[in-house]
Design a protein that fits this description.
CATH class of the largest domain: Mainly Beta
CATH architecture of the largest domain: Sandwich
Strand content: over 45%
CATH superfamily of the largest domain: Jelly Rolls
Helix content: under 10%
Number of helices: 1
Largest sheet: 10 strands, mixed
Structural class: mainly beta
Low-confidence stretches: 1-7, 13-17
Shape: globular
Order of helices and strands: EHEEEEEEEEEEEEEEEEEE
Amino acid sequence: MKTKLTVLMAIALALSACSAAATATSNAEALPRGVAIKALDAGKLDSLPTGPVYIRFIRFEQQPGYVINSKQHVPSIVFVETGVHRLILEGQPPIDLVAGEAKFHQSGAHTHLNPGSEPSGWYSIALWPSSARGQPLVNQIANPAFESDDFASDALPHVAYSVVLRQVTLEKLGTAGAHRFGGLAAFYVLTGSVAIRSAHRPSVTLGAGHGVAFLPQVALQERNAGEGQAVFLEFLVTPIGKDFEVPLKQPPTA
């Protein structure tokens, strides 16, 4: 498996306990093949929102020159799918992002601008308090592309968390291998089709624009379910001190 670590990703993994490599005694079906993983960005949450929480991917299709002024909200990651994006955090120099790049930012007033000549498609990805469901979104062009079910607060340790966004590319017949994450894990498909096997529940197949999320410590395995390349995002919220990701010797069984 190819894994590219950025500095912030390395910091996030240092905050969470690192995992061990799969051993030679693993079932061949559980091993990764035809997969490339790219760490996009990472950050730290000092604490979780109060009460139940959920993961939300909000998509924006922003025209050239269009400006979105946003007040303070939960820490989030901006991911640019197409075009270019300028993120202006209060009191900081502008941050320009191109397609395939991401930036974590803490809570605070900020501005989103498309400085290019073509439309820009981008996402705001974050863990939200469930009390935010149904509240008006920041702008009329904001579209809730994926919202997970609620996660009860008593299922999550009351500690600091690392937040990581990764992009996973699966070639035809490729698989990420069997593994489990130490924290909440959300998957969102950008292109192609991805089938996700998990312990104790039926397999789910996702097409582009669809997502799913899982509680910590659930055995998982993602595979390409289509005829061409598949690309998806992983949004991972891990308690500091817990394993970030652990490879498994056997595929998950429903």
